Amino acid sequence: MSQPTAAEQLYSIPAPYRRMENMHILFWLLKDIGWCMIWKPLGIAMVFPTLIIALLITWRTRDIKAELAHNLAIVFWISANSYWMISEFVGFDTVRVWGSLTGKHLALIPFLTGLGILLYYYLVQKPRETRGEQPLRCSKDR
């Protein structure tokens, strides 16, 4: 029997990792609810567990290129989103920092960094994997 191709390989998530991802969603929602309702203590407090869990998920999936790219993009997305929220809470979101760019526009730096990581993955890394230049590395349940 032949080995499955990268597209056919099954990606499974160990139960403890899945629970961590579910907690991550809960913290992220609480952060955004705090932002929406202008509950500054809740919004700011939830930045830390949301970002920490995103970093842990990224670290644990680092051996799978697709997961690494997407989870890094999420880390940068949460960073940009959190910076934007804090800029509104503190009141420097509308302060001009350079030309017509305001404090909240600085969130574009991590947003674009995440986008750049995904563009690299889809334009460079994934085509390499598809051609078989680099096999998909799947780590066993740790």
Automatic annotation (TrEMBL):
**What are the record keywords, sorted?**
Membrane, Transmembrane, Transmembrane helix
Show the stretches that span the lipid bilayer: 37-56, 68-86, 106-124
| Source superkingdom | Bacteria
| Stated name of the protein | Uncharacterized protein
The organism named in the record is: Hymenobacter nitidus
Q: What does the record give as the organism's lineage? A: Bacteria, Pseudomonadati, Bacteroidota, Cytophagia, Cytophagales
